[in-house]
Amino acid sequence: MTIKEALTSTVAFILPKNRIEKALIDAELDGSADYTKASEKAIDLCMAGLLITLITSADETEDDLSTKLPNRDVLIKAFSALYRKWNLVDPFSPVIPKPTVRQITPW
After folding, report:
1. Is residue 99 part of a domain?
2. What's the short name of a Pfam family annotated to this entry (predicted)?
3. Bridge-partner residues for 50, per DSSP?
4. Domain that holds residue 56
5. What SS3 class is residue 34?
6. Cα distance from N-terminal residue to C-terminal residue, the chain
7. How many angstroms separate the CA atoms of 38 and 32, rounded?
């Protein structure tokens, strides 16, 4: 299986092929190269970039034709899972402020 086939198998039903090719070029990946374990991180991050384009895309309606994207929550969860897999900072995770200790009083 090539890198392009691996990406196409996951998002081809939603994105046009030229968008997938652009993502490969932006990630500096050779689409005709074999899918290997060594290139897994680069491929996952390329897929995360494609998911971001889907998350920020709007549903389209024109006359009788309607294009509806998958649920954005599902796409965000998939994106977050890819980022957690590689221990990267997830931009969609909620920021919970940590309490700061200002004074310690002995009893």
Report:
1. no
2. DUF6706
3. none
4. 3-85
5. strand
6. 67
7. 15
- Residue 13 is predicted with a pLDDT of 63
Q: Residue 86 and residue 41: Cα distance in Å, rounded?
A: 7
Answer whether residue 39 is part of any domain.
yes
Answer whether residue 98 is part of any domain.
no
The mean per-residue pLDDT over the stretch 54-82 comes to 79
Question: What's the mean pLDDT in 41-48?
Answer: 88
DSSP code string of 48-71: HHHHHHHHT---EEETTEEE-PPP
What confidence tens digit (pLDDT) does each residue in 47-65 have?
888 888 888 876 777 777 7
Distance CA 16, CA 57 (A): 13
The vertex-19 CA angle with 17 and 23, nearest 5°, equals 115
Sign of CA pseudo-dihedral 20, 25, 29, 30: positive
Least Cα distance to 44 among 27, 25, 31, 57 occurs for 27
Q: Directed axis angle between helix 40-55 and helix 72-85, to 10°?
A: 160
The mean pLDDT of 73-95, rounded to a whole number, is 88
